């Protein structure tokens, strides 16, 4: 039912005072109960939308956070971009809270009020509906009985007047007809007089019944008003309750009034405003551009006192030996007593490959580059040659000579791979 709250359509339907027309007011009670269910369903559905939106925000933030992290954007603008994903996570939490308000708090409030306002009967229907129906019927019953008398007497009176008119018409025609005898005309005149007397009696009965009905009207109206006001009071409670619930829902939906919501977008705005193109360009210049440090090539004097970690790979007809030398020291230094104290790592070793065999010595090439991790070690380059002088001792050590004449000793580890 649609209404603008005015009286423009007040006369477009049958009056409330007519028999049985109170049923619209009685039906309003059932409608009120139904509207409670519809209000809950309406915002339960909105709660599902909020939950879905919250999940989509979270998924969106997760996806694009990874994209931005792996992407080429950098500096303060990258931080500003990430702020949108962080804001989405926080906004997702707010919409999840909103969903809880709608689906739980607001819905439970309506359901609990509905239980208190409407009571179902064992035989079906609502107690309030039956009470209103009985109240209106009881208030209307005496008046309806009088109304029926009025309707009966009215019909009798109208029929009497109709009969009278018919008799008068016949009498008039008979007087104008020469073929009619005086006796026939006299009988028609008696008929007209009789119908007139019956019409007057019917009129008296009709007026009396109407008078009786009018005397019942004030009492009838009072009784009907009393029952109607009971239903009005109940409906007023429902209308006021619905208004309060809708105001609560409005407060929950109006995130602009939520402090967390305002802080969220304030922080987002501040992060975006903090993006500094000058700072980002300076960072790029110093990190990837002309501002980077450079070790320009300088003259290096040859020195026999060099420490280097090397590895070698020996070959024979049956197997491949990968020789790893670590902890290179000068030939004049004492060899360590416990090889286990030497640190071994893939990043601290170089593999070498045999290139020629000479009596008492073997020449090998570096297979992998070596980056020094200790101050006393030397840098090794891929394919750099060195000469292994003799075989390893029982502790796994041997001597080696670089192609520039430096002599070094180191711990040897051998890995053999069958051909």
TrEMBL record:
UniProt-listed PROSITE patterns = F_BAR
Record-level GO cellular component terms: endosome; plasma membrane
Task: Give all residue intervals belonging to the F-BAR domain.
Answer: 10-280
Q: Which SUPFAM superfamilies match?
A: BAR/IMD domain-like
Q: What is the protein's membrane topology class?
A: Peripheral membrane protein
As one GO molecular function, the record gives: phospholipid binding
Instruction: Reply yes or no: does the keyword Repeat apply.
Output: no
Q: Which residues form a coiled coil?
A: 185-216
- The name this protein goes by in its record: F-BAR domain-containing protein
**Species for this entry:** Aldrovandia affinis
């Amino acid at each position: 039912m649609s209404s603008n709250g005015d009286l423009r359509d007040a006369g477009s339907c049958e009056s409330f005072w007519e028999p049985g027309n109170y049923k619209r007011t009685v039906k309003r009670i059932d409608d009120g109960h139904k509207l409670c269910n519809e209000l809950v369903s309406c915002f339960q559905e909105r709660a599902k939308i909020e939950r879905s939106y919250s999940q989509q925000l979270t998924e969106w933030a997760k996806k694009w956070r990874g994209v931005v992290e792996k992407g080429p954007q950098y500096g303060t603008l990258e931080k500003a971009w990430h702020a949108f994903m962080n804001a989405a996570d926080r906004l997702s939490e707010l919409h999840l809270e909103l969903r809880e308000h709608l689906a739980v708090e607001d819905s439970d409030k309506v359901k609990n009020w509905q239980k208190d306002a409407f009571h179902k009967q064992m035989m079906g229907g609502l107690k309030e509906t039956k009470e209103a129906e009985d109240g209106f019927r009881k208030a209307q019953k005496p008046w309806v009985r009088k109304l029926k008398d009025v309707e009966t007497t009215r019909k009798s009176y109208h029929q009497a007047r109709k009969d009278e008119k018919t008799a008068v018409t016949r009498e008039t025609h008979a007087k104008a007809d020469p073929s009619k005898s005086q006796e026939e005309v006299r009988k028609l005149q008696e008929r007209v007089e009789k119908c007139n007397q019956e019409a007057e009696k019917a009129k008296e009965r009709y007026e009396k019944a109407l008078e009786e009905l009018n005397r019942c009207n004030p009492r009838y109206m009072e009784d009907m008003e009393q029952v109607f006001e009971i239903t009005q009071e109940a409906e007023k409670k429902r209308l006021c309750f619905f208004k309060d619930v809708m105001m609560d829902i409005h407060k929950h939906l109006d995130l602009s009034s939520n402090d967390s919501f305002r802080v969220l977008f304030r922080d987002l705005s501040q992060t975006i405003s903090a993006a500094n193109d000058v700072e980002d360009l300076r960072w790029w210049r110093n990190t990837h551009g002309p501002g980077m440090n450079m070790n320009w090539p300088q003259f290096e004097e040859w020195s026999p006192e060099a420490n280097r970690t090397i590895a070698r790979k020996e070959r024979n007809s049956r197997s491949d030996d990968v020789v790893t030398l670590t902890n290179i020291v000068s030939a004049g230094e004492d060899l360590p007593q416990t090889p286990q104290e030497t640190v071994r790592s893939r990043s601290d070793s170089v593999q070498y490959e045999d290139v020629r065999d000479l009596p008492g010595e073997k020449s090998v090439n570096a297979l992998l580059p070596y980056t020094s991790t200790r101050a006393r070690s030397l840098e090794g380059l891929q394919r750099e040659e060195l000469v292994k002088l003799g075989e390893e001792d029982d502790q796994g050590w041997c001597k080696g000579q670089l192609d520039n004449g430096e002599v070094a000793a180191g711990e040897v580890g051998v890995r053999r791979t069958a051909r």
